[in-house]
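Practice problem: 2Fe-2S iron-sulfur cluster binding domain-containing protein
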Amino acid sequence: MRDALDSGAPGAVAAGRADDALTDDEAAIARRLGVTGLSRREFLALMSAAGLGATGAGALLAGDAAAAAPTGAAPANAVPVTLRVNGASHALQLDPRTTLLDALREHLALTGTKKGCDHGQCGACTVIVDGERRLSCLTLAAQVDGEAVTTIEGLADGDRLHPMQAAFVEHDGFQCGYCTPGQICSAVALLSEIERGDASHVTADVSRKVTELTDAEVRERMSGNICRCGAYPKIVAAIQDVHSGGAPRPLTWRYVGQDELLALNLPATGGAA
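Answer key — structure tokens:
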């Protein structure tokens, strides 16, 4: 294409005037494309012929800026924040606008806590802070400086699941599983609320401690956690099971290799009967 511009062929762009110089951004894009010595007219003709236009040029510049940015550098207005997550302490330098959800996922690689609506309306981001439920998408990381944060990753004891996790598995209290970490964290904190004697909107006698966790009681207390798959009946059953002390036996989990799957001799699926 450059040869065509320089050859004097029909449609070629003549060399620019003395003041027909590239801007700094245009020169950066030309270097990214591996061409030099272009006048501005030649540059614009090249960009037009290549079909890049303003959007493509902006993408090239953004790529250069990202490559030039120092990695691991704290933002200019960073504040020191110490997050105590699942028993471990993490000293971070964070933009004061960083939410607890983003701090967990982007800075601590704890991706079990999910970002759903990011507006505090779905409950997928629920974590436990000092024993109480908290929507991490609406909580600034700096607000929980030094407080004890528990995420879904911190509930199990090694490879032994928390009773609530085991109950969700036993009762099949999920389908796609995206909301499940928030559901389980919310359910664990719910039982702590019951133990403290906290009343809900449907508690019949607020002067007495709730002893029977009815369907209505569970649904009211879990109303901030949405399950788009509609697994609510099984979620309610799992929570009631743990509250009543009838939780299933503790389960363990691990990844199963291909050889182990073959050894199970499971029936084939999807084929003709």
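Discussion: The chain has three domains: 2-68, 77-121+135-152, 155-265. Students who identified this feature from the tokens alone can consider the problem solved.
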